[in-house]
């Protein structure tokens, strides 16, 4: 698990399946100690199976992160963000089927007494899929990787290079 990703257990939904477990994930910027992405992963299990799931288990994820305002108008943003999910699933070797979901970019402008930045732009990824095995570890890895990419973190093991300060030539 990446050190920037913090996980905690949440109360699971009670009406979606006989058995469920929920986890919240938050990505903390190591330089500013501020939250830069967050999300939830819910694991649902119904031993009787659910036809829409194509199986007995379903994984549901929600990830949100703030993005730069010009990105909300980018015509390929949704496809790129969806590829973050499929790449994370494939990279974690998380066998899956019946994958579906949405990618949404929103812009919000605050008025009046609302505090915070006047305008914020956010990206939301909502998806669900049916795992092909009972091993949930690759799916948790997928969730953590999706959070990290949505937060704009570099790949693990890659360091960002800070700009070199210009030197005065006196």
Which labels suit this protein?
170 residues; 2 helices; single chain; 6-stranded antiparallel beta sheet; alpha+beta; 17% helix
Folded structure, characterized:
The chain is an alpha+beta fold and 170 residues long. It is 17% helix and 42% strand. The protein has helices at 77-91, 137-150; strands at residues 5-10, 19-28, 35-50, 55-66, 96-109, 119-131. The chain has a six-stranded antiparallel beta sheet with strand order 1-2-3-4-6-5, covered by helices on one side. Mean pLDDT is 88; it is low at 166-170.
Condensed summary:
With 170 residues, this protein is α+β, with helices and mostly antiparallel strands. Helix content is 17%, strand content 42%.
- What does the main sheet amount to? 6 strands, antiparallel
Task: Tell me what portion of residues adopts beta-strand conformation.
Answer: 35-45%
Uncertain stretches of 5 or more adjacent residues: 166-170
SSE class: alpha+beta
Radius of gyration: 18 Å
Strand order of the largest sheet: 1-2-3-4-6-5
Helix content: 10-25%
Order of helices and strands: EEEEHEEH
DSSP summary, beta strand count = 6
Number of helices: 2
Apparent shape = globular
